[in-house]
Amino acid sequence: MKRKAVLMFSILFAIMMALSGCSSSSSSSSGSAKNEILYWNPFTGPDGENMKQIVNEYNKTNPKFKIKNVSMVADDMYKKIPTVVNSGKGIPDLTIVHAERIKQFVGNDLLTTYDDKLADYPEIKAENYVPAGWDIGEINGSRYSVPLDVHSFVMYYNKDLLEKYAPNALDDNVITFDEIKEAGEMSKKDKITGVGITWTRPIFLSIYNQLGGDITSDGETPTLNTPEAKEALELLKGLIDNKIANKDGEDPGQLFKSGKAIFYPEGIWMQNSLKDSKKLNWGLTNFPQISPDKIVNWTSSHQFVMFKDENRSKEKTKGITDFLDFVRENSLPWAKAGQNPASLVTLENPEYQDLPQSFLVKDPELQKSLKIFDYKYNGFVAEEIDKLVGDAIYGKLDITKGLKAAQKAVEDKIASNNKK
Amino acid sequence: MINTGVNKELNMSAVIEKNSGKKRFNLSPYLYIGPHLILFAIFFLFPTLYGIYISFTNWDLIGDPEFVGLANYKEILFNHESTFYDQLHNGLGNTFKFVLFTVPACIIVPLLLAAGLNTRPKGLKFFQALFYMPTLFSVSAVMIVFSMLFSVSFGPINHFLNVETNWLSTQPYAWITLVVVTIWWSIGANMIIYQAALNGISRDLYEAASIDGASSIQKFFRITLPSIRAQILYTVVITTIAQFNVYGQPLMLTKGGPTSSTSVLLMYIQQNAFGSGISIAGIGSAMAVILGLCIMVVSAIQFFFLRQRD
Of A120, A271, A349, B266, which residue is 20 to 30 A from A398 by alpha carbon distance? Predict the structure, then answer.
């Protein structure tokens, strides 16, 4: 009896060891492999294929360090980063992070700078990148990141409906909220929605910034409870109350795709989802503006960063920079994913110039309209804005009260973070 | 995560107590429970204890946790001014509401279905499979399907009812939707348990009752229910614990809205510890510990009341 039990236990034990053996060997193979650059990115959507294409093309050039492309869901990636960097095992050599996150990582001393590593790469410099994307990586005089793209939240419009309801709106290349209101008033008689309320965060932030507001006044204090924020919310609420925007719960994407909405504010990266609707005749323009004098397009950026790793050799770092230089010159596949590459080399490519989203980069004036909301506590602000805007503009929450609560919540979160 | 750990711990203690009674040290029981014990320690016990420790610290998941004593608990329990106090208050309140709304239905509906199936109707296997199937689907798949069903302008439900109800972002419809979805999704597990239990009741009892002239309702309350009391106790406790840990349904269907009225505590815990901002893991852990304590207290009360009748 006892012998049997011991035998069974030892079998179970052996199986367990084998299982755990498997897992540990697979995790150690990632990261510490000698001639491989472990490259983490959050591209799990269709854009992941385009990134793979760039990586494959680079690996075909037979570099000394090949790139190992690992895509994972952004949330998971951001959860994993502190753990691996703390443990020192399996740290990715190169990682794509969102621009808004960089300050936080720098604050926690997790990033290696590129300062002394770019000496042999004179072309990786400010002049060769879109300023909004490049500037974000420079913190306290050090360079912590190199941009891959600048992706903006703009507006799609239905060309046929625009012709019908607002034929002159695009004369100055800017569609204003007044023009949307006018078109919406006319179209609602035909049961056509004027404008879709899509992702409320960039919609609100764009308007807020047009009015002169920003999420922080000095880089430390959050500024959400301001007259400008109130005005921005009231403007949106006005669109909804006058039935120019879609009703609560209606899917603006469906409305636009089925030709029942004139204007559809969305990210440039959403183009692929529209290509399925063959009948839809759409165009791309700036996010709607209050006045054509100050144009703001909410923008974020994917940035290449290197997390600190004591074991990363100088040679490997050189391999990383080689790859970045390759991406700088070969970003076209990324543009085809619907993004605007940050590298200006792509701009010379006629194929790129034909892509709808390139209008933002072609015109140097419009390059200035790309606004990245950069703030150490951007994450806290984002959480509160997401909670606030939808409820406030659909009349479920008093705007003044909501702004006050949001401001307080961000302040409390910051305070609890600085308790140390 | 923490809660399951606490619960398992309770189960284990009974086993250990039994063994400690024996005088001679006997290795074999430990060999049997050994593999599970190791896994349990790695995946439940250690994370639970570590989580409790974190609730006494101030930690952003990156640096070293800094011990702050009871400060986190003070903040979320007693500081009326604090956002985190509001979060705990609102989150725990909504969680309790959800438990109250769903648990009775999650017991009664499967019980009635199981009783129905126990009469061996035509197509028994088919219905059994049909009712059990939702349980096999992942929460995200179910929620995507239901968000389409309840969609304002394109949803079949509004279409058939010929109304324009905004099911997902106005009250009380948001609660109704969440409860309906949860019941549909979780019928299967309890139903299977009841079916097995009902099969075990001797037919003689029913025959004797028939001879005595008992109606079918009397039979249900006098024979069926008392016979499966142990299973009902088990399912009530397990279902309550499961519903306390509600997260996926409100996250994906209502996104906690409208105006945070369906934001459950786990959503706040997740956002504080793993949100898009810098992590406030200490506060998140403290909230998780409080949720765990609530579940333990409620389960203990349930045990007490349902056992008392013996």
Answer: B266
